[in-house]
């Protein structure tokens, strides 16, 4: 008979190994329902869906809706946030100087200004028109702007309202401050406001109209 050595309650005997291996290899049967692995052809599914949408007119309706939505966004842009009507006039000078990120050269490759240099654009080009910011929904502001400036003397820029509707009504070209980039750049918080050249600087003025604005 082979010896069985007991070590701390654990059986340690090479003679038991065959029995342990047999126990581990026991067939426990099927533990649950199984399925075969299936990978549907995604491209075929998408292609079939698109063909069905094309056949029932869904794609055409979707394209029409998207085009209408895009046109509405252009004709009725989102008002610039944080801009209110002027309640108290104020003005300040704005330095348009910038620091160049790269060298500026002329057509012959000659250096005009180098990267890192601070440059005032008004030293090279003149600003020929004023920038007039107004709320295009306010009739008083619109009338004030178009009566005070000829089309060649100023660019009238809306911070709210539809430039297209006003152009048809006033027969005058208007612009829109998309995402408030210009008003934010000049620090304008109220309209009507004017940005006008003043030597090597720009004068920014928020104007209080007589009687106030709606």
Ordered list of secondary-structure elements with their pairings:
Blueprint: E1 5-7, E2 10-12, H1 17-24, H2 42-55, H3 58-75, E3 84-85, E4 90-94, E5 98-99, E6 104-105, E7 111-113, E8 118-119, E9 130-135, H4 139-148, E10 154-160, H5 163-170, E11 175-176, H6 181-186, E12 190-191, E13 193-198, E14 201-206
Parallel strand pairs: 3-12, 9-10, 10-11
Antiparallel strand pairs: 1-2, 4-14, 5-8, 6-7, 9-13, 13-14
Keywords: Plasmid, Signal
Protein name: Type-F conjugative transfer system protein TraW
InterPro entries: TraW
- Which secondary-structure class do the elements indicate? alpha/beta
Task: Indicate the proportion of strand residues.
Answer: 15-25%
Strand order of the largest sheet: 4-14-13-9-10-11
Helix content: 25-40%
Tally the helices.
Answer: 6
- CATH fold node name of the domain at 84-96 and 126-206: Glutaredoxin
Give the overall pLDDT as a whole number. Answer: 81
The biggest sheet, with number of strands, parallel, antiparallel or mixed sense and barrel status, is: 6 strands, mixed
Instruction: Identify the overall geometry.
Output: extended
Regions with little confidence, pLDDT below 50 for 5+ residues: 1-24
Q: What is the element string, with H for helices and E for strands?
A: EEHHHEEEEEEEHEHEHEEE
Termini gap: 110 Å
E-strand count: 14
Please tell me the CATH architecture of the domain at 84-96 and 126-206 by its name. 3-Layer(aba) Sandwich
User: Could you tell me the radius of gyration in angstroms?
Assistant: 38 Å
CATH C-level class of the domain at 84-96 and 126-206 is: Alpha Beta
